[in-house]
Description:
This protein is of the alpha/beta class and 418 residues long. It has 2 domains: 3-13 and 102-239, 3-Layer(aba) Sandwich (Glutaredoxin), CATH 3.40.30; 270-413, 3-Layer(aba) Sandwich (Glutaredoxin), CATH 3.40.30. It has 14 helices and 15 strands. The strands form 4 sheets. Strands 6-15-14-11-12-13 form a 6-stranded mixed beta sheet. It is elongated, with a radius of gyration of 34 Å.
Amino acid sequence: MLFSRIALISVLVCVTATADEAIDEITERSQGVINEADSHAGDVLDSAQKGDRTSIEGDWLTATPQTEKSPKSSSNSTAQQRAWTEIISETEKAAEGVGQGPPRPPVPENVMYVYISLSMPEETIRALFLQALANKELRSVVFVLRGWKPPGPNRLVARLNKLFPDAEKLRDLPNVQIDPTLFSKQAVDSVPTFSTKDESGRWGTVVGSTSIEDAVKRIESNKYDGQVIGPTFDIEEPDILALIKERMANVDWNSHVDRVREKVLTKTTTGSKLPVAVVDDSYLVDLTIVNNRDLRGSQGEVFAPAGVSVNPFDYMTTHRRFVFFDANDPKQLEQAVQWREKHAYTTMITTVPMSSEHLRKEVIGMLKQPVHEINRLIIKRFNLTAVPAIAYQEGRMLRVDVVAPGDSLRAQTKGEGQ
C-alpha cells in the first residue's frame, strides 16, 4: 500500500501539467460554465416551454372539466425567465464550487491538524507520520499540505512514498490531505503547525518542531497558544486558491452574462411566427376532440370514456379571453392593451419572444400581468392564422376575432357584445 493509493480528500485539481497550467485550466473551466450555458440555452428554453402547457393552455387543450368562477392565477415567469433563472443558478453553483474541492467527511471533535510542507526535513516528517501511526491513543491526526510544486501532484505523491520505503508492510498509512482552505482559515504561514481543540472546545495552536503528543499537552494547558516553541520552515507549496482568485479577478464575467441573457431573451422558442393581419376576420373553432383516455371528475368518476368525442364547452364555461400578439410590434401591443383594459379576465400570449429584458419589463408593466409564449399546439387547436387575435367562448364554440393593427376604431369595436 503506497501513498499513491491514499485518498487525497481535498485536492482541488488533479492534472499532470504544471501548477501554472493547472490554474489556467481552472479559469478556463469557469469561463466554460458561461459558454456551456450559451450553447445549452436553446435546450433549456425548449424543455421549459414543453413543460408550461397547463399555465397557458389549461382546459382548452386537455378538455378537463372545470367551471371557472373567478380568474385563475398565473405564474409570473415565462419560459424564457425560467430558462434564464436555471442558467444563472447553474453558473452560481459552479462559481461557488471553485476552490472547494470534493465534499469532505465531518471533522471529528478530537481531530489534530498537523500542517506540514515538503520543505521540512524528511526525518521530521517521517517521525511525525510514525507518531500518528504508533500511538493509537492520540487524537485523530490529519496531516495537511497546502498544495504541490510543478510539475504536478504526482511528484508530491512520489516524494511522500520516498519517506516510507517500507509502506507496503504497514497496515495503515498516515492521513494526508491537500487543503489550502485550512491553511487560510487558520492563518498558517509556517510549519510545522499543530492545531486542535482544548478541553473547553476552543481551537488552539502550537508552532514549531515538537512531537504530536507534546503539542496536544501544550494546547490543553492553554499556555502556548500560537507561540513558536521550536524550529520552523517556510511553506514551499504554492497557495493554489490565491492563484485561482487572481486569475478569476481578471475575467470580465459581465460581458459573458449579458451575452447569454440576451440570447435567452431573444431566442425564438415557438418555431412559428404568425403573419400580421391585413384585414379583419372573425371565425368559429370547434374544440371537439376524441378522447385518448378516460376523463374523470373531481371525485374520480369517469364522465367521458376514452374513444368518445368530447367538447370541453359541454362541461365548462369561461369568461377568459386569450390574446395573441407579437409583443415586439408597437401596434399589436397597443391592441393588446386595449383588449386588456376592456376585459377583466385575459391571458396574454406573445407569438415571438421579446427582444430584450428592458422590453419585457416595459410590456409587462403596460399590460399589468404576465406574458406567456405561444406554441404549435395552441396555434393548431385555436386555428390561428394571423395576429393580433382574441379568442373567447361563444356557446359550444370558440370565437376568434382577428384585427388588422393600426385601425384603433375597428379595434375598439371588436368584441363589444362579448
